[in-house]
Design a protein that fits this description.
Largest sheet of chain A: none
Number of strands of chain A: 0
Distance between the termini of chain A: 25 Å
Number of helices of chain A: 2
Strand content of chain A: under 5%
Structural class of chain A: mainly alpha
Largest interface: A-B, 32 and 36 residues
Oligomer: heterodimer
Strand order of the largest sheet of chain B: 1-2
Chain lengths: ~80, ~300
């Protein structure tokens, strides 16, 4: 059975663009305050303790994935509500 | 922005933008996007051993998001994905050991780059041939039951000019034989699945990424999995191969996790968009649309190797 395709209105597009703008702002702030802060520490453990570095690398990317998905879901919910 | 772990300097906006494009491709085609991510990172000046490990880390995060979307759409055969893990992990380790060998005995940049080019061109050529042939068969309405992948019980049917080849694979008797009801496969040898997974793992560990450009075609043409299920199952399996690959390459000093984190900020939203788009296209069209991408990746590597120029 074919699922009905979503309808794209001007309101949908506007809220999509707003969501992308908010996401970009959140990610930029995250990069400045988190990644730059972590940079020197990660370099230090990379040089001194590869095992610890490996133990930290995977959880970091998984944690970021979980965090960003929460942000994206919140934005999708917001834009879905506002574009109706 | 400086990335001191790999000793590179890359514009983070460019990196995140590249991650976004790769995320869209990954979510749509069910591949991690390493056919673009690897060449792009090499083009940005990242040494190839770091390209391999960093790309593995990057796709773990992206694939988690895309897998969730595909899971909601019912596009994942979890039984198949978990069985493939048994073959994938040894394959990834074998590939990672290959990288270590070339780091010690040869120019790892050139070796991996040449391997990348060969693989990408081969994959593009094969996907183009199969996609065009299948679309022609569909248009001429000469497609019969023999060209359908998947059975009615799976609820997902697809067309492929090579469906007959997959059916011949299914009748190979090599115990243990298992069934994959979700994918509409009544009987298939476990060894076939493990071999496909192992080979995919070797590519993943040696060239980085999830090797979806190998694994997804193998799922469709060798195992006979319908394309929509192959997309989601491949993404699920990438989490496993990418996760193990990240750890083993990090132990070997081949992962710049900061680059992976920045790329992923763009990839996270791109993957969601790409996954949703698969609802609008049939299997052969998805496979045909994939063709230019590995060629673009190959072209980027050739340019970087020949010119010696890095962007940034």
């Amino acid at each position: 059975m074919n699922k009905p395709k979503p309808q794209f209105t001007a309101k949908t597009v506007v809220w999509l663009l707003i969501s992308i703008t908010i996401y970009t702002a959140v990610v930029t702030a995250y990069c400045f305050f988190v990644l730059l802060y972590l940079r020197d520490w990660l370099k230090h453990i990379f040089d001194t303790d590869k095992a610890l570095y490996a133990l930290c690398a995977l959880p970091l990317i998984i944690a970021q994935a979980a965090l960003l998905e929460c942000v994206i879901r919140a934005l999708r919910k917001l834009s879905g509500e506002k574009s109706k | 922005m400086d990335f001191p772990i790999s000793g590179t300097h890359i514009d983070p906006v460019l990196l995140a933008g590249t991650g976004f494009l790769i995320g869209v491709c990954g979510g749509f085609f069910g591949v991690g996007g390493s056919f673009l991510a690897g060449p792009a990172l090499f083009f940005f000046g990242v040494p190839m051993n770091f390209v391999v490990g960093t790309d593995l880390a990057h796709i773990v995060g992206k694939s988690l998001t895309a897998t969730r979307e595909h899971s909601k759409l019912g596009h994942i055969d979890f039984k198949l994905g978990l069985l493939m893990m048994i073959g994938t992990i040894p394959g990834v380790e074998a590939g990672a050991q290959g990288i270590e060998y070339f780091k010690r005995h040869a120019n790892v940049n050139e070796v991996v780059a040449i391997a990348f080019i060969a693989v990408l061109i081969s994959v593009a050529a094969f996907m183009a041939w199969e996609g065009i042939r299948t679309l022609r068969l569909t248009k001429k309405q000469t497609l019969d039951k023999a060209n359908m992948i998947g059975t009615q019980s799976s609820g997902k049917r697809d067309v492929s000019a090579l469906a007959g080849f997959a059916k011949r694979i299914h009748i190979l008797e090599a115990a243990p034989m298992i069934s994959l009801p979700k994918s509409g496969i009544q009987r298939i040898s476990l060894w076939t699945i493990l071999l496909v997974a192992f080979i995919g793992g070797v590519f993943s560990g040696f060239l980085g990424g999830g090797a979806g450009y190998i694994r997804m075609p193998a799922l469709v043409y060798i195992l006979g999995i319908p394309t929509h299920l192959a997309v989601g199952t491949d993404l699920f399996e990438v989490i496993i191969s990418g996760g193990y690959g990240t750890v083993t390459h990090a132990l070997k000093g081949n992962v710049d996790i900061l680059i992976a984190l920045v790329m992923h900020t763009g990839g996270a939203i791109g993957a969601q968009l790409g996954a949703t788009m698969t609802n609008y296209f049939r299997g052969p069209r998805i496979r045909l649309a994939f063709v230019p991408l590995p060629l673009a990746g190959a072209a980027l590597i050739v340019y970087t190797l020949i010119s010696g120029h890095h962007f940034g």
